[in-house]
C-alpha cells in the first residue's frame, strides 16, 4: 500500500485552471460515449447516452454562466469542445439505434422506448416553476 501512495505523490498534479476543468469534462464525456478505452486490450465499453447527455448539458451550462468572462482561448476551447461532443453524441446515438433495430430476436416484438434524456428537476419532474 505504501508503494501506491508513493507513486501517487510522485505524479505531478496539473494546476487548477478553467482549461483543465473543461478538458476533464470533455474527456469524461468521450469515455461515457464509448470513444476511449482506459485499458489496452479491454473490450469496447457500451456508451451511456443519458450520462453523456448530462455531461454535455453541464458543459453548456458552464459556457453560458461564464460567457463574457473568458479569454479567447478558453472560449474557443469550450465552444469547440461542445460542438465536437454534440456531433459525436448524435453519431453514437444513431449507431446505438441502428444496432438496436438490427438485433431484436426473430418473432418477438419490442416496445419502442422514449430515447430522449430524462431530466430531473428540482420539483421532482412535476413541471412547476421554482423561483
Give a verbal description of the structure.
- This protein has 131 residues and is an all-alpha fold.
- It has a domain at 15-102.
- Helix content is 56%, strand content 0%.
- It has four helices and no strands.
- The protein has helices spanning 2-10, 18-32, 49-66, 72-102.
What is the chain-wise order of helices and strands?
HHHH
> What percent of residues adopt helix (DSSP H or I)?
55-70%
What global shape is seen?
flat
Instruction: Give me the oligomer status.
Output: single chain
In what range is the share of β-strand residues? under 5%
Overall mean pLDDT: 80
Quick structural overview:
The protein is 56% helix and 0% strand.
How would you describe this structure in keywords?
4 helices; mainly alpha; 131 residues
Topology:
Layout: H1 2-10, H2 18-32, H3 49-66, H4 72-102
Helix pairs in contact: 2-3, 2-4, 3-4
